[in-house]
Amino acid sequence: MDQRKLHKLVETISSGQFESEKDMLITTINKIVENENIDINGGRLWKLDEAIRAYAILYQTGNVERINSDFKLKIDDYPIFDLITKERTILGNETNQVLREAGIFKYSASGVGSRKKIDSKLFYEYLLALNTNKIDDDFRITLNIIATALTSQIKQKRSSAKEKHLRDDLDKARQLQKSILPEHEYHFHDYELYGITDPAEIVGGDFFDYLEFGEDGERLGIAIGDAASKGVSAAAEAMYISGALRMANGFEIKIAALIRKMNQLVNKIFEDDKFASLFYGELTNHRSGLFMFANAGHNPPMLLKYKNGEIDFLNPTGPLLGPAPNAKYFIESVNIHPGDVLLLFSDGVTESANKDFEHYGEERLQSILKNSGNLSAKEIAYTILEDVIKFSKGGQYSDDKTLVIIKRNIKNQS
After folding, report:
1. Which of 97, 301, 333, 413 has the smallest set of CB atoms within 10 Å of its CB?
2. Are 401 and 365 in contact (CB under 8 A)?
3. 3-state class of 335 per DSSP?
4. Sheet containing 341-345, strands listed edge to edge, beginning at the edge strand earlier in sequence
5. Between residues 349 and 204, which one has the greater pLDDT?
6. How confident is the model over 373-412, as pLDDT tens digits?
């Protein structure tokens, strides 16, 4: 299961109505273990007891060796807790003799919830330990996504009862957010671009941008991003990422290095339940239509080929921004030929749901892209957006929707 779908699954499960935080965490763990598409066969949940300076077992399920319910993990005996605070998720070999005698020789541990200060150190409220047949870096990223999504839900549920929307402040925030977005329409040599954002609330976590390079106009950077959750906090993250991209633009950093820097900034500056997806690519004025890009966990953009009507996908070249500060990102490239259309979009487009809880989906998006590919970039954008809005009318779930259309025009032959 890819990262976006995994996050959405955990978010959907944990956002339900529960009697307690414990019930929410247990239900989510059980659903993950039961899901055949996720390679997780069991797990444990530990809770920090500040009074005794230890983690106590709260729940265990699935294919795991059972630990005595009165067993405690003393924080003073485990230096790895410092590493969990820094990196959220760690994998390693078990050293505790009691646990080794119980048949536990390898472990995974991921921090969930807020971090509590004991003496001068910080410790997560919960530790999530999940079992899999293969403990490796891919599993580390899986745990990071699960723990980040659960932490986000915990914080949202705790604050929802206190939140009061201040209309005037939100209106100001909306104007600020609008001020950082570029003009919808943009022309670069024989390319026409059109971008549009439709936030689910007054402000949203989606953004897009066009970044000009140099005085000669040989390159144009295009970015689209989606900050997790909704509302003011997501909008703040989106504005920060967009601003950081613009600042970095002045230094003309190479794409892979740029995305690595963005990932480290998101991890360092924002709270540990915050993350974002980001797609960034650069157009050139070369006649080959070279388009180099990096995709940090974002929805794969769709490239509609004029020549044969087929669609290619620009798949992720690295994980989401935030959860893993040392993640690696790579660049890929495609050629955009005359008549081709590149569609960039946020998951609020494909995951818009109707009153029967059916998602708009990628297949429907591909179909309407093919049927509208002969239109201008602006017409394609509005054709898609209007179809999504019409489809989801009466639906209960709504997320920010962003579209950027890049079309290379066919030059008239004289």
Report:
1. 413
2. no
3. strand
4. 185-188, 191-198, 401-408, 341-345, 302-304, 311-313
5. 349
6. 999 999 999 999 999 999 988 876 667 889 999 999 987 6
